[in-house]
Amino acid sequence: MGFLKRKRNGLDAPGIPDGLWMKCAACQQTVYRPEVEENMHVCPACGHHYRIGSRQRLELLMDPGSFQETGTNLKTVDPLGFRVGEETYMDRLERAREESGLRDALLTGFAAIEGFRIAVGVMESAFIMASMGSVLGEKFCRLVRDAIREKVPLVVFAASGGARMQEGILALMQMAKTADAVREINDAGLPYISVLTDPTSGGVLASFAGLGDIILAEPGAYIGFAGTRLIEGALKVKLPEGFQRAEYQFENGFIDQIVKRTEMRPFLARLLRCLSPQSARAALSSKEADAASDAPPGADTE
Amino acid sequence: MAETILPFERSIYDLIEAAGRAETVEERAALLKQSEAERLRVYANLTPWERVQLARHPRRPRMLDYTNRILEDFIELHGDRVIGDDPAMVCGIGRFRGRTIFIAGQQKGVSTEEKVSRNFGMAHPWGYRKAQRVFRLAERLGHPVVTFVDTPAAHPGIEAEQRGQGFAIAESLRLCADLRVPILAVVLSEGGSGGALAIAFADRVCMFQYAVYMICPPERCAEILWRDVEKKELAAAALKVTAQDLMDLGAIDAILPEPPGGAQYDPAGAAEVLASEIDRFLEACRQGAYSVEKRREKFRRIGHWLEESL
Which residues on A lie below 8 Å from B166 (Cβ)? Predict the structure, then answer.
């Protein structure tokens, strides 16, 4: 699992010592590390989007200091007594906590993007590949209810290897539970933006991540239900380059737009401006029209 | 029907074969009696991996065996109205004891040709979308839905991905979270992954006693967590896949009894058990026992976590 450790700093450059220069894992070009970091961990040469941690993503995309975390009191337990060899699930969780600094794979809270207040969820691939277990499912459901209570849009940055095997059938059932939570926010008439990042797969794609009102993706992100290796093994074929990438899913009609990380923040702000509940009311009633100027909600007093 | 004997069933069949070669009536009767005792012993002591093998037993009755036995009429509905028809997912309208029910379920197939044509019960996206269409129709016309789960998993394939398998399953789940008619789901044999759950977000979820229901096939779990497919026995044990396990975890509502060793020993009896379950379900529906709110609440509660005071 050494690769997870390397990805902690967002840069998976096997064999390249930490230093000012690094070789891009995608284009093999030698690039200046501070420039990559400055560029939101996107290779300035080829545009490869490195995986980044959930807190880092919040720092890059949300208004400074706007994030208020929720759901920190939910603790993952080991309902099956699962172990692989000597390592129990509790040990595995402890290792994941050390690797990621999180208690489970979904960070939730409120934040703002260019003044637009949102409920936000960010998944953490350094935490057991952001797999979905009971805590993740429950946190997603609570996040939805927070969004509804505060009447704010929901934005979720998905990344996941799928349902968490160590929680067995309970993990599978989180798909049903989170899909119902999406139904709840749909019924509440609030927008839900799902941003698919590398990788979004399995039970997470096949539940809340795949149900966004608006589905965005980062360039090159792996997005698929069954893993590439599983399909290759089952069909005894080599899958073409680009299979199950964001561009492929876009072409097949499952993604609204592919948005570069460096453009994500202004893009989301534009989208939130269009989708804000205030602008919806304004379109249907002249009284509300003034209240819904282009200024973010909350900038004016209600 | 060609006999398929699983490794751990060998001792039972040895006794049955010995009985066939017996020279006296008494000897034969004694050996058959012994085989019966052996059957009870073997099936009472199965390992989780053996339970998985038994759930996949090729002689287990399939969805259509059951529907043929218990429905007075069945009209199959084909096609998702967009791409095509998925033979792995059978949908339709049935008459059960004078009432109309809408049906969806995976059919693994019995003969080799049928298995191939039905893709071993592994549905494609248009299979889930066909089921969605039938669920909506049932809702609009006010009839209850009964689903039959019998699938190793969703189909791992190129076209399945191209046509948005993950998105299709997600849509099925959201639809079932909102369906205004009651849904009964019965796991017949093998319920694997999102492919199974896509038709099992139900007011009442039952499993046959020898069925398994799991997040993914144990072979797959072994590959990922043990990095060795041969560790499937360990994975099967760790995943907790039997009907009793799922009852204990609060993931299902009831277990439907089978004769020792499984429904294949008495398909008519198993069909009778299923018919009684459907009958009870419909009776409960008439008494207003189910609602979409209760269904949501039931699934909302599934999961184990600790909540610490802040």
Answer: 201-202, 205-206, 210, 224-225
